[in-house]
Structures are given as structure tokens and as C-alpha cells.
Amino acid sequence: MSPILEINSLQRAFKGRQVLQDITASAAQGDVIALLGKNGAGKTTLLETILGFALPEQGEVRLFGTLSTEIGANEKQRIGFVPQQDELLEQLSPCEHLELFRDFQPGWDQSLCERLCQSWDIPMAKRISALSVGQRQKLSIILALCHKPKLLILDEPVASLDPIARRQFLTELVNITADQQSVILFSSHIVTDMERVANKVWLLKDRQLVWQDELDTLKESVVKLHIDAAQPLPDQLPLPHLLRQQVQGNKATVTVKYWQSAEQTMIEQQLQAKIRVEHLNLEDLFLELHENQEQGCDDEL
Amino acid sequence: MTNFNRPSVFTQLFRLLTLRDMSIVWWTMIALFWLLGFVSTASSYAAHLILVFYYYLRLLPSIAALLTGSYGRLLFSHTASALIPFLLIALITLLGSLAVVQYTALAYSEAVVTLFCGHLILHAVFFSGNSHATGLIIFPIWAVMIHPQFFLQTALLAPAAQPSPMVIVFTLSLAATVFLLKSVNSRGKTRQPQPAATWRFSWRAIPKYQPSLGACFLFQYNAQPVIRLLVFSIACAVTPLLQSSVYFWLHSDWQWFPELDWKFLNDSVFIVPLLYWLIMVDSVIARTKAAWLYLPFNRQQLWYYYERHFVMQLLIFSLPLLVLLYLWQPHNPYFPLSSVLLLSKLLLITYLVLYFPRSSMVGFAVTFILYLSASYKVFLTPLNTQLYSALFLLTAALVLRHFALKRWQTRNYSPRTASQRRRHV
User: Cα dihedral angle (B357, B359, B364, B369), rounded to 10 degrees?
Assistant: First the structure.
């Protein structure tokens, strides 16, 4: 199966400052990718470069096999995009805006549109300029979803949504992935939401994509070890792939990556300690993967 | 309900009259013209015009929203709420009566009664909270009041003072009075419908009749050539109308392209259309990011798409612009050359903005150059000067086009320049 999205050695810089460096990744049908990264990590830049808003300094991005800077009508009508700040036509009402899209988008799903408008309580007659940020965001999402895109890119789509709307939105994402076999790439800081729907994780750190794999693989790979030894532990534990460590006497809490359960017995013997393995959720993983940088621990991810 | 001593009705009336941010400025301006009205009758007319525009378009919607809303219930007693609309009507009737008496053949008492009844009916509509009805009323106000000879045509108000029409006016006023009292009294008992607070008189450009979704996002106006011609014609007619209005104000005589000593207005004859064009091109370019994913083109084709569009718009624009040039100076011996010069300026502005998209410094520079080069005196210069100017502008436009084309191949559409409206969730 050919990938819908391919990124090869992508580099972006702003006024001489490197923002993205050597990004290589791909996404195929059915992938729901959570793009994680701290504020200013370059998530929006990456998403906008993918969509062809700007040219990369080096490398290339291909959408449906076409260079992102060359995409035309054929590719664009298969893309749905929800920007961080909506780009709606403020002088129209939601009803008029949706009609406009329905008239121009060949694959428009009117029943989905009506269902979402009803369940999200979109005030159809009010002018868009008078809507709240949350209502505008909901409308942006409806506009991006209802033409059944094959590639859906969402930049902080749930930041302004209430918990009910967020849950409904996530359900819709799952349905779309199941029905249409699309690629969904979305960034958000509400990591618990991402964990519910994503099957892959892209982690941006230090201008690079330091993790791009299945979410389950990440969860199995990065674990927290609670070590309880019979005698005081050394300040620096001799463990491979150490991300973070906290040693207090004969107790220690360490985070390691590339964890394999077979290693547990060996380490227990080596340290003469009992080890309890804690599997982390995505939010904790995100924190652990970033905190290690501040503590200057271990190698690059 | 919280009980507290409410201020007197007159204090509250003053607060309502100064409800909006710029109210004091507007009232000072109205007062100034009104006082000048004792010296010059044209000033009375100006005072009344500003009063009607400001009061009905800005102040009254806010007052109606406050009085009929939940804050109104808390801040105003029933008596004050019932009294205030009538005090407001009395005030603007008294302020406007001077102009009406000066410009019409009506007696003072007739003028006051006619104005009072008219304002009473208008207030009833505003307080009804029906934004559509309010909107419908605003248009006749604009249409009638903007007519410079409104007050000179005494026949317009005189029939209203005749017995038969006055019976209708009095009946309507009586109904309006009953409605106003009823709506104010019932405000605490039942929930009022949403007042016309959200209604604003504004030009609502609807991006209809565009060939693609991307074009709707990009241009955001009605694409019909007739509508575009109308909008361009308005841009061209602004300054001449202003000149005529000023002349009328000073000399009580209506003239087309009058001889005025106001340099600023004389210079603005061609600057206003050119500035309108500059703003139009600039705002279209600023929307590239929003439109990019809906435009059926790739990067290479986008430039030519813009160029085609602006050339088409320029063709439409040139019609009222050249008419303006001709009407401004019908006996210009070099009219074809002046036309070329004027259109060259538009071309240069277009390519300048395309080469330096969304740059405030360049925008300032362009505006300055525009002011200097678009001065009407250029079109009065000898043949050679106009010819060389046109050639220079065309060459500069061509050079800029070459570089702008290259720049657009690699342009980043991402940076946001327009401030995004953010509201509370």
C-alpha cells in the first residue's frame, strides 16, 4: 500500500534559525497519528509545510505521491485541514458557509454535516463573527470533516472545545478512520484525548522527530522501574537506555526506553534489588521523554 | 433583587447619552455645529445630519439593548424606563427642530410635532428588538438624509403637516407610545426577545458567484461584474461627492467638481480610488493562506491566477476611473495619455504589493508615493511629462513583475498578519 503522506529529510528554518531538521516519516491509510511536542517545538510549522504553505529548505514532502508544493485540485480536494486559528468567512452565517462548501465539494456528506451541527449546537443563523471561539472551532472541524478527506490534518483541534464536544469529536475521528481508511494527523496538548484515538505517535523534540512508531510500542518500550535494593544504590545506576533516574538510598525510580521484560531478572540480580515495572500512559510518557532533557540524562532518544 | 438608591432620571439620561466610548466626541461635534447653526444655516443641517446618523446608527441600539436587557431591569426603575425613551425623543426633536425650521416653510410648532411623531415611531421600532425591522428603517434614513437637498425640498415635510397625512402620523405615534410604555412595563414579567444590540449597519460582502471555493476565500466579495462596477464607482465618487457637500455647506449651492481651496480634497480625487485598489489587492494577498487548500492550482499557477484576476478587475475599475478623469477635466487635450498614466499607476501599485506582500513599511512607502504621484497636478502637466511618467511607471511595473513572479514561487503563505479576533469560549 503506497503511503498517503511521505516526508523525506525535511528541513525548515526561520531567519537562519533551524526549526525542523532532517524529518523523515510516512503515513498510510488507517493511521491516526498524534503529533506531540512542547510549545514552539515546530508542530504547526511541520503541519503547514506538509500542506505546502511553505517550501522546505531541504528535503521534500509528498501528498498522494505529489510534491506538496505542486499539489493541485486533485490532491487538495482529498485534504481536510483544521488550522490552529480558524480561517472562516466571518461575514457569513454557519448555514451560508456550509452551503458554500456543499456546493463546491463533490464528496460532501450532508447527513454527517446535519448530525454534527445538531449535536454541537451550532447557531446556524448567527453571523460567524459573533460566534465564540469554541463554536468557530466546531464549525471549522465540520467543514474539514464533511467532504470525507483522505488526509485529515488538525492543528490543536480541541483546544477550545468543551469536554462533551471533545468526546464527540474523538468519536467522529474513530468513525472516519474506520469507514474511510483515511490518514489523520493531529496535534494537541490534551494528550489523554490523543491516547484514546491515536495508533501512532510522532514526537517532536529538539527540531527532530525523535519518535515515530505505534503508540502501543511506545508504551511497551518506555517504562518506569521502581527499584528497591537491600543496600544503598550508586548515584549513577548502570542501566542501559536510561532516560531519567531518581536515587534515594536503597530506593530508586528510573525511566528507561527499549525495555524488554527479559531484562528484568538480569537487572534484579545485578543490583540485588526487587524491581516493579510501571507502564506509563501517553501523558506521563511525554513528560518523561521531555524531562530527561532538562536533567541531562542518557543519550539521545 | 438588590435594592439601592438609583440616581435621578436626568443623571441616568446623561449616562445613556454618553454610553458609548466616543459619545462625548460626537456630542461635542453636534453641539459645535448646532451652535454654529445660529450663524450659518448649513451648520444646522450638518448638526442634524450628524445627530441622526450617530443617534440611530450607534447610540440608540446600545440604549435599547441596555434598557430592555437584564442590566436595564436592575439599574432603572419602572418609571425611569418608561420616561427615558420619551425624554430622548424630546431631546433629539428639540435639537433637530432648528434645522427643520431654517430649511422648511413649517412653523416651529408644526416642525416640532412632526419631528416628535416621526422619532416616536422610529423609537418604537428600535425598542421592539426586531433587528430586521430596525435594519429596514435605517436604509430610508440613509437614503433620505444623505440627499444634500433634503431640507431644501420643503415639499418633503410640508405635506406631512397637512391634515390628512397628520391623522395617519398621529395614529401611528399613538400606537408607538402605547407600544413603548407596554414594552417597558412588561420587561420584568416576561423575558424580552433579544434586542437589536447585535445589529450593526455594515457592508456585508457576500462571496457569491465565485468560480471556486478558493476564490470565495480569496476575494470575499460578490464577483458579479455589475456589483464590482458599482463598488468601484462608489470608490471613485467619494471625493467628488465630498467636495460638492463641502461646497454646499460653505456656499449653500450644489455644484459638481466645484472650485475649492481645500488642497487635501483636491488631491484626494484620484488618491481615494487608488487607495481603494491598494487595499483590495493587499487584502486579497493576505488571504492566500486561508484560500490555498481550496484553490485548484499549484504554486506556479497561483501567480498567473492572481494576475488574471487583477487584470479583469482593473478593466472593470478603469471604466469609472476614466469617467472620473473625464468629468474632472472634460477639456483635457491629452485625455488618452492621462488615462494611460492613471492606469499605469494602478499597475505599478499592483506589482508593488505583489512583490512586497503584507509589509507595513512598504505599505507606508507606497501610500506616500501614491500621494505624491497621484496628485491631480500630474494630469495637468505638458504632454512630454505625462508621456515620460507613464513610460517610467510601465517599465517599473514590468521590472517589478519579473521579480515578483520569482518571489511568488517560493513565498511562505504561513505568517499571519491580520489580527485574529479571539472571543471567550
Answer: -40
| Strands of B330-423, DSSP E | none
Alpha helix segments (H runs only) across B76-162 = 78-103, 108-128, 131-145
Cell of B198: 447585535
DSSP assignment, residue A198?
-
Report yes or no on whether pTM surpasses 0.90: no
Mean local confidence (pLDDT), A1-28: 89
Can you tell me the distance from the alpha carbon of B78 to that of B184, in angstroms, rounded to the nearest whole number?
7
**Residue A214 buriedness (CB in 10 A; 0-12 / 13-18 / 19+):** middle
Q: What is the pLDDT of residues A251-291, one digit of tens each?
A: 888 888 888 877 888 888 888 888 888 888 888 888 887 77
Contacts of B294 in chain A (CB under 8 A): 76, 104
Residue A253 contacts residue A226 (beta carbons within 8 Å) = yes
3-state class of B373 per DSSP?
helix
Nearest-Å Rg of the Cα atoms of chain B is 27
Q: Rounded CA gap, B317 and B322, in Å?
A: 9
pLDDT digits (tens, 9 = 90+) for A46-73: 999 999 998 999 999 999 999 998 898 8
CB proximity A272 to B under 8 Å:
no
Q: What is the pLDDT of residues A71-91, one digit of tens each?
A: 988 899 899 999 988 889 988
User: Interface of chain B against chain A, CB under 8 Å?
Assistant: 198, 204-207, 212-213, 216-217, 220, 289-290, 292-301, 410, 412-414, 416, 420-425
Report how far residue B313's alpha carbon sits from residue B395's, in angstroms, rounded to the nearest whole number.
21
CA-based R_g, chain A, Å: 22
**Is this complex scored with an ipTM above 0.95?**
no
Q: Cα(B133)–Cα(B138) distance, rounded to whole angstroms?
A: 9
Chain B, nearest residue to A70 by Cα = B298
Neighbour-count burial of A147, counting CB atoms closer than 10 A to its CB (0-12 exposed, 13-18 middle, 19+ buried): buried
> What is residue B187's predicted lDDT score, i.e. its pLDDT?
56
B74 Rama class: left (phi>0) / alpha (psi -120 to 50) / beta: alpha
Q: How far is CA B376 from CA B279, B364, B372, in A?
A: 20, 20, 10
Is residue B273 a contact partner of residue B324, using CB atoms and an 8 Å limit? yes
